[in-house]
Design a protein that fits this description.
single chain; alpha/beta; Spore Coat Polysaccharide Biosynthesis Protein SpsA, Chain A; two-stranded antiparallel sheet; 36% helix; 23% strand; globular; binds 1-O-phosphono-alpha-D-glucopyranose
Length: 294
């Protein structure tokens, strides 16, 4: 069993990134010069995903266009002998097969995932949320796929430890550890207050799910925030099917928030030899300018 399809919901309005998101899709906002969505799709492709299903809303056409060929730009680059850039642009345009489906009303993540039902078929599939970039040689979603295979194709939820006071920002899992990194889940709760949270194991939006989730999503009531929550459906799934949670390896950046975005930008600039020296010099200069000493 190979997981070939990933649902990437991108219908959100990106209110944490206003005013930029007033006119552009938040997924197109770059970390230096690479749009955030590029990293998310790259994670999927490196894990062996062959088809991406974007769940979109109005104003998101740029995301679909980004992964399409752009003949006009290619011709321009070729004519001007910009061959390196030409190669890069062609590569992005043929990275993966992309389809999209509209979420006509913003009724929550569970509702968004349900919109892709008809495009999934019967095999397990991945769901990857775009607000969190996870950096690791073995992609986070691939690590979850491996756990799924090890457990007869079970659903697997990616988790990380968060400070207790942050449980109210995430879906939080509960269950029994079967080894140091993997739990057999007994339930999941959306954004509990710290005092009600069963654990501090939160999902930053990496899921392997089985087909049954759609039947559950069709029947759950609205949950937290008066929205249809994927978390609530997974909580029901745990009752009838094996659902695992796995602490994946990788550094995660909450690029949907301004501080997380800044962390990713600095990290990526320091990692890349093409930008490292410049960033170090630029920071030194500004430390002097603003009288900052460490
Ligand atoms: C969504 C999910 C939540 C998950 C989070 C990860 O919440 O509902 O379970 O932990 O994404 O980013 P949102 O951040 O969209 O409110």
């Amino acid at each position: 069993m190979k997981i070939k399809k990933a649902i990437i919901p991108i219908a959100g309005k990106g209110t944490r990134f206003l005013p930029a998101t007033k006119e552009i899709a938040k997924e197109i906002i770059p970390i230096i010069n690479v749009p955030m969505i590029h990293y998310i799709v790259k994670e999927a492709v490196e894990a062996g995903i062959e088809q991406i299903i974007f769940v979109t809303a109005s104003g998101k056409y740029a995301v679909e266009d980004y992964f399409d060929r752009n003949q006009e730009l290619e011709a321009f680059l070729e004519k001007n002998n910009k061959l390196k850039e030409l190669e890069l642009i062609k590569e992005i345009g043929s990275m993966v097969s992309v389809t999209s489906v509209r979420q006509k009303e913003q009724l929550g993540l569970g509702h968004a995932v349900l919109m892709a039902k008809d495009m999934i078929g019967y095999e397990p599939f991945a769901v990857i949320l775009g607000d969190d970039i996870v950096v690791n040689d073995v992609p986070a979603i691939k690590q979850l796929m491996d756990v799924s295979v090890a457990h007869n194709g079970a659903s697997v939820i990616g988790v990380m430890e968060v400070p207790k006071e942050d449980t109210k920002k995430y879906g939080i899992v509960k269950g029994e550890f079967i080894n140091n990194t993997t739990l057999k889940m007994t339930g999941m709760v959306e954004k509990p207050n710290p005092e009600d949270a069963p654990t501090n194991l939160a999902t930053p939006g990496r899921y392997i799910l089985t087909r049954e989730i759609f039947d559950i999503l069709e029947n759950i009531p609205r949950g937290a925030g008066n929205e249809y929550q994927l978390t609530d459906a997974i909580n029901v799934l745990c009752r009838n099917k094996t659902v695992m949670a796995h602490k994946f390896i990788g550094e995660r950046f909450d690029t949907g928030s301004v501080p997380g975005y800044l962390d990713a930008t600095i990290d990526f600039a320091l990692k890349d030899p093409a930008t490292r020296e410049h960033l170090i010099e630029a920071v030194k200069k500004r430390f002097n300018k603003y009288g900052i000493t460490l």
